[in-house]
Amino acid sequence: MPLTPFHLGPAFILWYIFKKHINLAGLLFGSIIVDSKAAVCLIFLGCETHDPIFHSFFGALWLGIVVAVIVLLLCSHLKNITTSLKIDDNYSTAAIFSGALLGTFSHIVLDICTHSNIFAFWPIYSQPFSISFYWFVQLFAILTTIIAILWFVNKVSQK
Fold first, then answer.
1. Are 2 and 105 in contact (CB under 8 A)?
2. Closest CA to 68 of 18, 104, 19, 36
3. 46: left (phi over 0), alpha (psi -120 to 50) or beta
4. Would you call 9 helix, strand, or coil by DSSP?
């Protein structure tokens, strides 16, 4: 996807479906951390934005673990935020790890459908299931992001 924030919409839909089993913060943070190097490259360095390691299932595994540890460390602060927003979220260790890993892996799956330079099975530099659903995935991501924003606005306005 050309814009990282649009990974948040599909991630939100996954949380809404599986919210009893996954943590929202882990899922949302996991869905965008894969592009952290891309952001640095675009803003500061001018290097390749789709890092082969970060944009692989191997990289997604390690990034997901990092996200889960960060969420675990920030758990009490994140609970305060979700409680103030009246969002019932699961903060068990299993839910946090599940959310973070689902976030990073969903990012890879969405990028496989929209980019030809994603090597999901790095260090193998081939893309055996490169699927070109660019416009469908873009529309889906934009619509789900709009739905997520509207849902959050509704939650905040119910205070």
1. no
2. 104
3. left
4. helix
In the numeric block, which tokens belong to residue 119? 């090597």
Kindly give the confidence (pLDDT) of every residue in the chain, 159 residues in length, as a single tens digit, with 9 standing for 90 and above.
Answer: 455 677 888 888 899 889 899 999 999 999 988 877 766 766 666 666 566 777 788 889 999 999 999 999 999 999 999 888 888 899 999 999 999 999 999 988 888 877 777 766 677 666 666 566 777 777 888 888 888 888 888 877 776
> What Rg do the C-alpha atoms of the chain give, in angstroms?
16
Please tell me whether the peptide bond between 123 and the residue prior to it is cis, using omega within 30 degrees of 0: yes
User: Rounded to two decimals, what is the model's pTM?
Assistant: 0.80
Written as six digits, the tokens of 115 are: 């980019």
- Kindly list the distances between the CA atom of residue 157 and the CA atoms of 5, 37, 78, 84, 149, in Å, as whole numbers in the listed order: 22, 35, 19, 11, 12
